[in-house]
Design goal:
By secondary structure, the protein is mostly helical. Helix content is about 75%, strand content about 5%. The protein has a domain at about 205-234. Keywords: Coiled coil.
């Protein structure tokens, strides 16, 4: 019934001890009515009284002894039955508790198994995510390395651009200086040309005065021009 041999042996020993205790309690009741029958008379022994009985009363005493024996057997059987029923009830209760414990344990193991499967799946997903993250980090690292090289090139080109801008500014400054010099020279040349023109005009008038003493050259002026045979202001 689900009990081990050791448990059965312990319970049988307890039942036997209980039965022997009941038997020891019942034996004095039987001994109180022991009758010795002889050919002539019967002797009945009591704890506090002894008397001789006639032969005719021996059957009555024997009958009383038989009744006492029957009551003793009934006492043993009536005491043994509750013990057996109590033992059976204890075993049933023990088995019921065992079944409940086993069912609870199985349910707990089932829940633990389901939780373990969920954790395994979660760990697998986390592992896959970590692998993907590592691959992404490696890719980004490669891109960063490429960008670092591009950054170096851009820095070099930036420095070159700065140099070119400096050179361009120098060229602009030189050009502005040369332009100022050219304008100054142009102005100088223009002034010199005007002076030369004025001097030449005066020389020409002087020649006319010498060659044509009667000619009227009072209206002649270096700042005037000839337009339709007339001298007009420019």
């Amino acid at each position: 019934m689900g009990m081990s041999k050791q448990d059965l042996a312990k319970r049988f020993k307890a039942l036997r001890s209980s039965s022997q205790t009941s038997l020891a309690q019942a034996i004095p009741l039987a001994q109180d009515g022991v009758t010795v029958v002889s050919d002539e008379e019967a002797t009945q022994s009591w704890p506090s009284l002894k008397r001789r009985l006639p032969l005719g009363q021996s059957k009555v005493v024997v009958g009383e002894t038989t009744g006492i024996s029957a009551r003793f057997e009934h006492t043993l059987s009536s005491k043994g039955l509750p013990l057996q029923e109590g033992s059976s009830n204890d075993i049933d209760r023990f088995l019921h508790k065992t079944e409940v414990s086993v069912a609870a344990l199985c349910d707990k193991l089932s829940r633990v198994s389901v939780g373990e499967k969920d954790r395994i799946a979660e760990l697998a997903l986390t592992k896959a995510q970590l692998i993907a993250a590592k691959e992404e980090v490696a890719r980004l690292s490669n891109e960063i390395d490429g960008l670092q090289g591009l950054k170096v090139k851009l820095k070099e080109r930036g420095e070159r651009i700065t140099e070119l801008e400096t050179e361009l500014q120098q060229v602009k400054d030189e050009f502005a200086e040369k332009e100022r010099s050219w304008r100054a020279l142009k102005e100088k040349l223009a002034n010199e040309a005007a002076s030369t023109y004025g001097v030449g005009f005066e020389v020409a008038l002087e020649q006319v005065r010498l060659l044509c003493l009667l000619a009227d050259i009072s209206a002649a002026d270096a700042s005037k021009i000839v337009l339709d045979a007339r001298l007009v202001e420019e």
